[in-house]
Design a protein that fits this description.
The chain is an alpha/beta fold. It folds into 4 domains: 194 residues, Rossmann fold (3-Layer(aba) Sandwich), CATH 3.40.50.300; 199 residues, Rossmann fold (3-Layer(aba) Sandwich); 107 residues, Arc Repressor Mutant, subunit A (Orthogonal Bundle), CATH 1.10.10.10; 81 residues, HRDC domain (DNA polymerase, domain 1, Orthogonal Bundle), CATH 1.10.150. The protein is built from 26 helices and 17 strands. A 7-stranded parallel β-sheet has the order 3-4-2-5-6-1-7, with helices on both faces. It has a 6-stranded parallel β-sheet with strand order 8-13-12-9-11-10, with helices on both faces. It has a two-stranded antiparallel sheet with strand order 14-17. Strand 12, helix 12 and strand 13 form a beta-alpha-beta unit. The longest helix is centred in the last third of the chain and has 21 residues. The radius of gyration is 27 Å and the shape is globular. The two termini are 40 Å apart. The protein binds adenosine-5'-diphosphate, magnesium ion (MG) and zinc ion. The site of adenosine-5'-diphosphate (ADP) has 18 residues, from helix 3.
Length: 622
């Protein structure tokens, strides 16, 4: 008789309570109902199908898009003493047969496969004789053409399920929230009256930040140096940038490696593994990196370039802080990023042979616009993003760069009049750079050649910085006074709403960030004792981390599969010195206690004896 859901949660996984949504979905599946769980990254979707799989008889199949992803999950399950295995193209025939024998004999009832396996005749024949209780589709957005990760073989899932002797329960999970993708999942996976559960998309432990640096590289080096010994991802939009940035980081003494589709397979694979196994701290990558990276201890994601849409941004940034620890998501913006993304859109739509390329292009264009606004908005960044994903949230989160930045309420009426009339006087034919150049009285050759130095608006805002002007223009755009027409060249154009402003019949106000002098970029290294910021007893954290690395190395598994950073932090907080206290640590179940309790308790005991624990942990509320 398999165990019930609470016993599994506590003894197998070492957690005390379910997170929002988990229990509802688990109950639905255990009652034989199809389910669709839409929950943000790090919310704990895996448990929603792993617990039913372990709580009932029959085989549970998990369809997962990437080998590295399923490998991690299976490693973690095996660590917790659960009977899981996987079948994929990286295994030889003998190993595959061994796994299938285990499944047939009932020793493994949680089997991970890639969708391609569903088209393999040998597997299809084999599975006919196995009672399948549950088919789970992880990363289910891969079934939709509208998402960025479309995988044609995901379309094989529905026919596969229909072809089984007895229809199993089908459960699908994704972090992609858009209505279109949701509809596609329901339809293309042929879910039968599923329990649909959408939890909030907020990731409260992530700190969002947008920077507009004059020079990106020095800022990046300073940001990464401040986070020495922490795991991080730096995303760039081109392979060339990846190479350049990775080199610069290494030259500065940071252990970093590049990752992009242009590297030889073996190098790419090695770099990815070095990162997952904590042999290097930072991976510099294009967006080819990440899907299927379940590394839970990533504590920062820096975008060296702005991505093309907020879906990608939220997904990539969301790879930070999966373990629930505070993590930073920082975007370094420049105007060039918008042009690069525009170029990608243009290119992809000339190459595409879609049925309705116009509609898709328009969609891409809209997405790019929303992404660009994110970089210029003065609103709370979290509020802006959640609203984009269709979710209500407080207007201020208190821990993004806009909430933390000082703002002032300013009257922009005169500035708006000057800007709008400059646009009108030049025939609404120029982009933001030229308009700013005219307003600030630049001696730019192209400007002089056009005779713009004779305009009445030439130089009338010479005392306003270009950065501030950009901020104001984007604010006017956000408020609907002007538009940036996308074509091959982004052109500013006044909208109807601006008439009253130009004729002095309306005022314009805004909350703008107070301008500060650009911060001095320091490259000093942090004080000793790493661990996520705010860890109590950081020196103990370092010792536990070292022990974890040794154990992981011995077994050839990633460190976070043994204990997550969150579990280490909890140990530093609770300082458990016996088995009972150790079981109380979040993420410690019975199997892990038996396997690792002794070693970790020994380190903690020794540390408690020789070091004085910080007073924070003597306070029970901490
Ligand atoms: P998702 O697939 O939704 O991105 P995961 O299933 O990978 O998220 O879970 C993210 C992290 O949260 C993992 O480290 C997992 O062990 C942890 N987790 C899941 N459920 C709970 C819970 N009920 N309590 C504490 N931690 C949990
Ligand atoms: Mg997942
Ligand atoms: Zn905020």
């Amino acid at each position: 008789m398999p165990a019930d859901k609470f016993t599994l949660l506590q003894q197998r996984f070492g957690y005390k309570t379910f997170r929002p949504g988990q229990e509802t979905l688990i109950d639905a599946i255990l009652n034989g109902r199809d389910a669709l769980g839409i929950m943000p990254t790090g919310a704990g979707k895996s448990l929603c199908y792993q617990i039913p799989a372990l709580a009932q008889d029959g085989l549970s199949l998990v369809i997962s898009p990437l080998i590295s992803l399923m490998k991690d999950q299976v490693d973690a399950l095996v660590q917790a003493g659960a009977p899981a295995a996987c079948l994929n193209a990286s295994l030889d025939a003998a190993t595959c047969h061994q796994v299938m024998d285990q499944v047939a004999d009932g020793f493994c009832n949680l089997l991970y496969i890639t969708p391609e396996r569903l088209e393999n005749p040998g597997f299809l024949h084999f599975i006919q004789s196995i009672p399948v209780a549950l088919v789970t589709v992880d990363e289910a957005h891969c079934v939709s053409q509208w998402g960025q990760d479309f995988r044609p073989s995901y379309l094989a899932v529905a026919p596969f399920v229909a072809g089984l002797p007895k229809r199993p329960c089908v459960a699908a999970f994704t972090a992609t929230a858009t209505e279109q993708v949701r509809q596609d999942i329901l339809r293309l996976l042929a879910l039968d009256h599923p329990k649909v559960l959408v939890t909030g998309f907020d990731r409260p432990n992530l700190n969002f930040e947008v920077r507009h640096p004059g020079k990106k590289l020095p800022l990046l080096l300073s940001l990464v140096n401040k986070r020495r010994d922490q795991s991080g991802i730096v995303y760039c939009s081109t392979r060339k940038q990846v190479g350049k940035v990775a080199e610069a980081l290494c030259a500065d003494g940071i252990s970093a490696a590049p990752y992009h589709a242009g590297l030889p397979d073996s190098v790419r694979k090695k770099n990815q593994e070095d990162f997952i196994y904590d042999r290097i701290d930072v991976i510099v990558a294009t967006n080819a990196f990440g899907m299927g990276i379940d590394k839970s201890n990533v504590s920062f994601v820096i975008h060296y370039n702005m991505p093309g849409d907020l879906e990608s941004y939220y997904q990539e940034a969301g790879r930070a802080g999966r373990d629930g620890e505070p993590a930073d998501c920082i975007l370094l913006y420049s105007g060039q990023d918008v042009r690069t993304q525009q170029f990608f859109i243009d290119r992809s739509h000339t190459e595409m042979t879609d049925t309705d390329p116009g509609a898709l292009r328009e969609k891409d264009q809209e997405r790019l616009k929303a992404m660009t606004f994110y970089c210029h908005t003065n609103e709370c960044l979290r509020y802006y993003m959640l609203r984009y994903f269709g979710e209500d949230s407080p207007k201020s989160c208190g821990h993004c760069s806009n909430c933390n930045g000082e703002k002032e309420h300013v009257d922009l009426t005169v500035a708006a009049q000057k800007i709008l009339s400059c646009i009108v006087r030049t025939g609404s034919r120029y982009g933001i750079t030229m308009i700013i150049a005219i307003l600030r009285g630049s001696k730019n050759k192209r400007l002089l050649a056009q005779g713009f130095d004779t305009l009445s608006t030439y130089g009338i805002m010479a005392d306003t910085s270009a950065k501030r002007l950009r901020q104001i223009i984007h604010n006017l755009e956000n408020q609907g006074y002007l538009a940036v027409d996308d074509g091959t060249y982004p052109i500013l154009r006044p909208l109807a709403k601006s008439r009253d402003v130009l004729f002095g019949k309306a005022t314009v106000t805004a909350d703008l960030l107070i301008e500060h002098k650009p911060e001095k970029v320091k490259t000093s290294h942090p004080a000793s004792g790493s661990g996520p910021s705010g860890t109590v007893n950081p020196t103990l954290y370092d010792e536990l981390r070292a022990l974890r690395a040794t154990l992981a190395d011995k077994q050839g598994v990633p460190a976070y599969v043994i204990f997550s950073n969150a579990a280490l932090t909890d140990m530093c907080r609770k300082l458990p010195v016996d088995s009972d206290a150790f079981l109380d640590v979040s993420g410690v179940g019975k199997v892990k206690l038996n396997r690792y309790g002794k070693a970790f308790i020994a380190v903690i005991q020794k540390w408690v004896k020789t070091e004085k624990p910080s007073s924070a942990d003597l306070n029970p509320t901490n």
